[in-house]
Amino acid sequence: MIKRVIVLVTLLFAFVGANENIVVYKVENKDHSISAQTIAAGLEKHGYVVSKNQDMNGPYVTQFGKSTFHSYNLMSVYHPEFAKNSVLKSMRAGIFVPFSVGVYQRQNDDSLYVALLSAKAQQRILNIEDKLYAQLEELNKKTIKNILPNAEISVLDYESTKTDKSFYTTYSFEIDDEDALQEYDNMMMGMQGNMKMAGFVVANYINYNEELQDNDVNDYLFFHSFSLCKLKVIYELSKKTPEAGAFAPCTMIIYHKKGSNKTEIVSLNINGLISILALKDKSLVDMLEKTQSEMISIIKDSSE
Q: Which end of the chain, N or C, is surrounded by fewer C-beta atoms within 10 Å?
């Protein structure tokens, strides 16, 4: 009886300080037989849309001359039913259409990891409470276990830090409905050029309005989703916190609801990364703040 109590207490203490915002699965993969494509194919088989499965390790080696990973992939993923239901309840929920899944295996490590945000994190980022997110997390977990029966949840041994800052940023500007499409085209011409000059890459694009219309939702003039990445940033983040792949690439949505006479842009910002990953490294935080400042300038300049 005494031994059982000691074991129970030990287990309880092991979970103190755990990060509840990121779900990380770990599976033995010494022979490298499991790949990011294994995960992508499994997700698609279970009804998810994998709009992008981006190998990052090749670009790491090409641009920086080295990598600490055997493989590092960033996926842009969404579940059509959840996506539709969440956006119908709150337009800003579109920043998780798609959401990110990081799949990675370090060199000299026999295990492969799959990282994604928890329901708690998604609700915290959006400042929303809705059972939809718990339902998505349950489906995500069930699906990963179906794809990787031997995978187990790997508990991150740090807590997210607290902050009262918002984890998403909204920009809006008034524009008559009849002029919105032309203004959008003009804005994107400037934005894409400025993003390229600043080193941002549009890793993935979804015209989500087409999918909404296919589901008889005709509320929008347009609803676009852009998955954005800056290679240097994710490279530095992944070296120290590879689970950062649960955030990258970050999604920015641009939409105009009919009758609103207003175009809105919503994006994830660095506050979520810093808080949920408990980042304390000044060089990383400075890099993220600079990246955020650049994106704000690009959006403001393009929408004026």
A: N
